[in-house]
Amino acid sequence: MEQNLSDTIALLSRTPAALDALLRDLPEPWTLRNEGEGTWTAFDVVGHLIHGERTDWMPRAKMILQFGESKAFEPFDRWAQQRESQGKSLAQLLEEFARLRSENLAELRALNLRPADLARRGRHPALGVVTLSQLLAAWVVHDLTHLHQLSRLMAHQYRDAVGPWGKYLGVLHCTAHSAP
Amino acid sequence: MEQNLSDTIALLSRTPAALDALLRDLPEPWTLRNEGEGTWTAFDVVGHLIHGERTDWMPRAKMILQFGESKAFEPFDRWAQQRESQGKSLAQLLEEFARLRSENLAELRALNLRPADLARRGRHPALGVVTLSQLLAAWVVHDLTHLHQLSRLMAHQYRDAVGPWGKYLGVLHCTAHSAP
Fold first, then answer.
1. Residue B177: what pLDDT?
2. Which of B154, B176, B178 has its CB closest to that of A144?
3. Could B147 and A147 be called an inter-chain contact, meaning their C-beta atoms sit closer than 8 Å?
4. What does the pLDDT look like over A86-108, one tens digit per residue?
5. pLDDT at B167 exceeding the cut of 70
6. Has residue B41 got a pLDDT over 80?
7. Contacts of A22 in chain B (CB under 8 A)
8. Is the pLDDT of residue A120 over 50?
9. How far is CA B62 from CA B49, B117, B124, B130, B132, in A?
10. CA-to-CA distance for A63 and A55, rounded, in angstroms?
11. pLDDT score for B178
């Protein structure tokens, strides 16, 4: 399936409410535990999504439109949320994510992108030449990667508690951690 | 982490609203496509969760309390939703799931389970002896397994569209499909 702008926006616009419904006021064992050293909690994941809204997706989309392949994107800081989320509650992060996503989608819609724009090319600092359409598809799949990670890290907390059922529960067998 | 009844109920009670926020009125390319032959769509997943509410979790919990290890649970039909979801819309399924989950959690709360109850044992037709506590933990991780599956099957639709980003997006590398 090709990237389709209205399908992309439809999914991107739902992520904040889905995370809010899942995580808000959830007991801390679910939101403040990770999968072991060097891994993230649900709190970290929401902070990471916020950082992406601020520095990654729309800033990169605008760089493609403005500079094309002539200027590489800024590398993405996968640990920025450790600094930026300090002192905030999960509820605050969920609200900040929803607000930033909504602003970014308003800006995306206002660009009125046509097929020729979606085919425009930019330069990723590690991946090389990418198109605006690929960037928008990656924004969606990045949301889904972190929803996938969230379900896995929360399930991890009950890894032992499920006893023999562990064999049947696919999420406990996932090894597809995100690359940097 | 041990299974904790209030943590369990907190998570179980959020799943229907999270799925509703993610899936309701989402364009059909996200909800009616699967990952290939013999796999499920988002529509199938919600139907499967409904079947679990009707026939699996609370009925099995009550069997443990009533019969202990003397009577094995009914095997779970993983394809029942193909029959039971026919002619329904995704919005109808989301509402049905929310209603059944809410009724089941009201029933679970009304049991006023004490630690001694949670240690009671029943018999799974394939896994053998299991405890009520393990059953409740498995109910949670079953929700998370299907949230994990949902994020993966939706991401699959943009597998090609993301171009070189595929390398970085963990959900596209997940092979942890659920066992029957």
1. 65
2. B154
3. yes
4. 999 999 999 999 999 999 999 99
5. yes
6. yes
7. 14-15, 17-18
8. yes
9. 19, 11, 13, 13, 9
10. 11
11. 53
- Label residue B180 by pLDDT band (50, 70, 90): very low
CB contact under 8 Å between A155 and B145, yes or no, is yes
Q: Is some CB atom of chain A closer than 8 A to the CB atom of B147?
A: yes
DSSP class of A122:
E
B164 touches A at CB < 8 Å: yes
Which chain B residues are Cβ-neighbours of A171 within 8 angstroms? 141, 144-145, 147-148, 176
User: In A, residues 23-62, which contact B (CB 8 Å cutoff)?
Assistant: 23, 26-27, 29-30, 33
Give the closest residue to A133 by CA, choosing from A120, A124, A145, A143. Answer: A120
Task: Kindly identify which residue of chain A lies nearest to residue B136, measuring between CA atoms.
Answer: A162
The string of pLDDT tens digits covering residues A14-39 is: 999 999 999 999 999 999 999 999 99
ipTM of the complex: 0.95
**Of residues B137, B155, B135, the one with CA closest to residue B147:** B155
pLDDT-based confidence at residue A175 (cuts at 50, 70, 90): confident
Angle between helices B90-110 and B42-55 (to 10 degrees): 30
Least Cα distance to A170 among B121, B11, B39, B60 occurs for: B39
| Length of chain B (residues) | 180
Q: How many CB pairs under 8 A join A and B?
A: 217
pLDDT confidence band for A43 (50 / 70 / 90): very high
Q: Measuring CA to CA, which residue among A92, A20, A93 is closest to residue A50? A: A93
Cβ–Cβ contact A72 with B under 8 A: no
Pairwise CA distance, residues B171 & A148, whole Å? 6
Is A119 at the interface with chain B, CB within 8 A? no
